[in-house]
Amino acid sequence: MITFIKNLLGVKTNQAVQSGLEALVRWDPKAATEAELRTMEQRLDELGTEVARARLSLVKERKEADAIKALSEQRLAAAESLQAQADAANDPDRKVSLEKSLAQLLKLLEEMAPEIDREVKDAEDAQSFLVQLEEAYASAGVKLKEARSELERAQRQMSRAEQQRDMAERQADAAKRAAGLASTTSGLSVALKTMQDAAEKDLIAAEAANSKASLLKPTKPEEDDANIAAALAEAAGPKPVTVTDRLAAIKAKLGK
Hints:
Blueprint: H1 2-27, H2 29-88, H3 92-216, H4 220-224, H5 226-235, H6 243-254
């Protein structure tokens, strides 16, 4: 149960760290990418250090392998020399002494054989390890270079996108201003049309009044011709009775 709780807390912690990293990346992707590149570069440097160590180790292992093989070859040559001397020795004591030395040397050679194999194997392993590290180092270098190129490409794309956005915003602002000007022009046109319609209406009313006045006004022949003027006056009805007319009417009734 305790192990389960520890593992669960570990998972929760990893999830929290992952969520935090994702939030940081969303907040500033450029900085996050640059940070990742720096991390990759640090790993590349660390790998480069490992490659350097592996090269030194390979040099050391090769030297040790070469040294023990040289010593083995030297002892083997010495053993062959002792063998020849022992075979050629006529003095029994000398022969016994040479054979004793040869036996001791052969024992050393036999004991050296596993060490020689081990040193050769160590050198081969060091060579293989170095090759793997160098391949990993080269691959990491290529990945870092590609990642930096991708970042630069993304930065250029972001820059172009920002420029396009700014241009689009300026075009939108220009369109808004144009629309506002069109609206103002449209309003001005409406006002002018209203004024023109009002003026035309007034002109029509004035023209109608003038026509009516002309129609009601006596024409020229009616004013110049006395008979027409009298007839018109008679047609217009009796004239107002004056004092003189009233006096004449009274006298006519009295027979005077």
